[in-house]
Amino acid sequence: MNNMLLRAMTGTVYVALIVCSIIFGGGWGFPALCCLFAILATIEFSHLCNSQGSSPSAIIVTDTIGALIIAASPALILHAAGNPAASAFNIGALMLGAFTACLLARLTMQLYIRSVSPLVSWTASLGGLLYIAFPLSLASLVYLISGPGIILTMFIMIWLNDTGAYLVGSRIGRRRLFERISPKKSWEGFFGGMTFCIIAAIVIKCCMGTYAPGMSLWAMVVYAIVVCVFATWGDLVESLIKRTLGVKDSGRMMPGHGGILDRIDSLLFVAPATLCFIVILMYI
Question: Do residues 20 and 130 share a domain?
């Protein structure tokens, strides 16, 4: 099958899955998808960090269980209590407890697993939970406390930022954005992506009705800039990880696209930024 066709088909399924989980998920769909992403991305990250050798199954299982509990914490607590404000402490406690338990379990496992660099292996597990599970749990939390509008807007802006950066950068990109990490990225592409995000903010605010976030137009424009900046950082950080490990793609879970991390790298940075942006708006 033609690679472009395969890429288009995979991308269509990926986008449809996200949009349907947000709009038709009934409160559980998107958090469940975040948990699925956490499981797949953690498995992928574990294999990636052990690319020079096989990763013991016990490590993968432990990391995946920890990531699943952390990613599921907001949905489990909020659906059980029904009060976001009163549940904030419980969410934090469950996430911190799962994180601590996973790290202690991983430290104990290093006593029984023969590893050339046990501390490096343990640190990779720590990094995976911080890099993948926590941001996905925050994406779920944003959805649960703010509704589908802001999450749908976030994804639309992430996708349009990628599209704008590619279209503009491939045509007129001259000045390298971060040549040491990603030689193909350019400043022209960066501002092209930002322009697409700002246009999306205006269109969403004016045309999306009930799915438009409850922000002013100026707040939407500022949010578009925030998404562009953090999405670019997320992309660059994943490029740094892959370049350090000497791999082209994070995995092969998504035919034509590489791995799941190659698709959600921007989300992992934009989701925490979105939550912070919402909190800031509440106090200004």
Answer: yes
Nearest to 160 by CA among 199, 105, 216, 207: 199
Q: Are residues 88 and 205 in the same domain?
A: no
Q: What is the pLDDT of residues 243-274, one digit of tens each?
A: 888 888 787 877 767 789 989 999 999 999 99
CA distance linking residue 163 with residue 220, whole number of Å: 19
DSSP string, 73-92: HHHHHHHHH--HHHHHHHHH
What is the number of helices (H) and of strands (E) in the chain?
Answer: 10, 2
3-state SS class at 243? helix
Q: Cα–Cα distance between 18 and 33 in angstroms, integer? A: 8
Give the C-alpha distances (Å, rounded to integers) separating 126 from 116, 121, 140, 265.
Answer: 18, 9, 21, 17
Count other Cβ atoms within 10 Å, centred on residue 5.
10
pLDDT by residue (tens digit) across 175-230? 888 888 888 888 999 999 999 999 999 999 888 766 677 788 899 999 999 999 99
Could you tell me the residue range of the domain that residue 195 belongs to? 147-284
Domain boundary among 112, 146, 180: 146
Q: Sign of the CA dihedral 239, 240, 241, 244?
A: positive
